[in-house]
Specification:
- The chain is built from 11 helices and 15 strands.
- The protein has 329 residues and is an alpha/beta fold.
- The protein has 2 domains: 118 residues, 3-Layer(aba) Sandwich (Rossmann fold); 178 residues, Dihydrodipicolinate Reductase, domain 2, CATH 3.30.360.
- A hairpin with a 7-residue loop joins β13 and β14.
- α9 packs across α11.
- It binds nicotinamide-adenine-dinucleotide.
- The site of nicotinamide-adenine-dinucleotide has 22 residues, from loops.
Length: 329
C-alpha cells in the first residue's frame, strides 16, 4: 500500500459528497474519478483532483488505487464491486447495497475471497443520536421494545430510482435508511407485515411509493414504520420514537438529520432532557471510518452482511405490501 491512500470515486452524483469528505482527510489522495459522463468526471476532477475515467475497469487497471467509493445506481453495484475486489481494491458501496439479495451475496463473496473490505454506506448508523440510543439500550435503559418511525422523502424523478431492477422505488432505495437503523438498534427482523400503494407518483405506477408496516424482531420487540415518497423536500423530516425499559427517546429533525434529542426517564418523568446537535455530517463520519478501517485492517462497522440484511427486509416490506401477506424472514 502506498503511503498516502489512493482513492477513486465512481459515480459522481452523491459521489461528490464522498469527494468532499475524502478531501478533508490527511494522507488521502483523490487519485481518480469515474463516471460514464465524461463531463461529470471532468467537472469533479477540476474541483477535487484525480485522473478522469469514463470506465471503472480502465480506472482499476491504471490508477493504482487502494480503495473506491462506489456511488453508482444499485443495479451496477454487484458487477463493479466484483471488479474492484478482483483488482484488490477496498470498496465503500452506497446504499442500497443492491436490488437483490443474490447480488448482495455476490458482493460479499467477491470481497471475502479477495480479502478486501466491503463497507455499505448506511450513514444513519453513524449519527451520534442513533449511536447514543444504541449505547443506552445496551446498558442504562435496557432494550428498545417498541419503535415508531415516520420517514418520507421529497420528490425524486430519476428513472433508475423507480426501476424494480435498480433502485426498486422509495421503499428500497430510501426507506432502507430507517430499516437499517432499526436493525442496528433492535436486531434481526423476524416478521414483516405491510400495506402500501402508489399514491403520489402515478407516473411510476405500479411501483409502490409509500407503505405502512410492522416489524416483529427476533428478540420480541416491535416497530411500526411509515415511509416512502410522500413529502415535498421543503418539509420532509425524520421522526423516530423509541420506548426502552427505562426511558422514552424521541429523535427528530429535517430529512436525514435526526439532530433533535428528547429523553424522558421513567424514574424521573417530570424532567425530560432535550438538546439539538449541530454540525453533524454523517457522510464525513462514515468516510473517516472507512479510511480508518483500511489503515488498521479493522472490520468496517457496516458490513456487507449488514447491507444484505437491510435489503432483504426492504424487499420483504414490498412483497408483503403486494401480496397482503405477512412475510417471515
Ligand atoms: N447515503 C445517502 O444518503 C445517499 C444519498 C443519495 C444517493 N445515495 C446512493 O448513491 C447511489 C447513486 O445515487 P445518486 O443520487 O448519486 O444518483 P445519480 O443518478 O445522481 O448519479 C449517479 C451517477 O453515476 C453515474 N453512473 C451510472 N452508471 C455508472 C457506471 N457503470 N460507471 C460509472 N458511472 C456510472 C451516472 O452517470 C451518474 O453521474 C445510489 O445507490 C443511491 O441510493 C445515497
Amino acid at each position: 500500500m502506498s503511503s498516502s491512500l489512493r482513492i477513486g470515486v465512481v459515480g459522481l452524483g452523491i459521489g461528490q459528497q464522498h469527494l468532499r469528505c475524502y478531501q478533508e482527510i490527511e494522507g488521502v489522495e483523490i487519485a481518480a474519478v469515474a463516471d460514464v459522463s465524461q463531463k461529470a468526471a471532468e467537472k469533479c476532477a477540476a474541483e477535487y483532483g484525480g485522473q478522469v475515467f469514463t470506465d471503472m475497469n480502465v480506472m482499476l487497471e491504471s490508477a493504482n488505487l487502494d480503495a473506491i467509493s462506489l456511488c453508482t445506481p444499485p443495479r451496477s453495484h454487484a458487477e463493479l464491486t466484483e471488479a474492484a475486489a478482483k483488482a484488490g481494491v477496498h470498496v465503500l458501496c452506497e446504499k442500497p447495497m443492491a436490488p437483490t439479495v443474490a447480488d448482495c451475496d455476490r458482493m460479499i463473496t467477491a470481497c471475502t475471497e479477495a480479502g478486501v473490505h466491503l463497507m455499505i454506506g448506511q450513514k444513519k448508523r453513524f449519527h451520534p443520536n442513533i449511536q447514543r440510543v444504541k449505547k443506552l439500550s445496551e446498558d442504562e435503559f435496557g432494550p428498545v421494545r417498541w419503535a415508531v418511525c415516520k420517514y418520507a422523502l421529497g420528490k425524486v424523478d430519476k428513472e433508475w430510482f423507480w426501476d424494480e431492477k435498480d433502485g426498486g422505488g422509495p421503499l428500497l432505495e430510501n426507506s432502507i435508511h430507517t430499516i437499517d437503523m432499526l436493525r442496528f438498534l433492535m436486531g434481526e427482523i423476524k416478521r414483516v407485515y405491510a400495506e402500501g400503494g402508489n399514491f403520489f407518483a402515478p407516473k411510476f405506477a405500479p411501483q409502490l411509493d409509500v407503505a405502512t408496516y410492522t416489524f416483529r424482531f427476533e428478540n420480541g420487540a416491535i416497530a411500526s414504520v411509515g415511509s416512502g415518497m410522500a413529502s415535498e423536500w421543503a418539509f420532509a423530516n425524520d421522526h423516530f420514537y423509541f420506548a426502552l425499559d427505562g426511558a422514552e427517546i424521541r429523535l427528530q429533525g429535517s430529512f436525514d438529520r435526526p439532530d433533535g434529542w428528547w429523553l424522558g426517564r421513567r424514574d424521573n418523568p417530570s424532567k425530560p432532557e432535550e438538546e439539538t446537535l449541530t454540525g453533524i455530517d454523517c457522510f464525513a463520519l462514515e468516510i473517516k471510518h472507512f479510511v480508518e478501517c483500511i489503515r488498521s485492517g479493522e472490520r468496517p462497522f457496516v458490513t456487507g452482511e449488514d447491507g444484505r440484511g437491510s435489503v432483504a427486509a426492504c424487499l420483504a416490506v414490498k412483497e408483503s405490501a403486494r401480496t397482503g401477506l405477512p412475510i417471515e424472514l
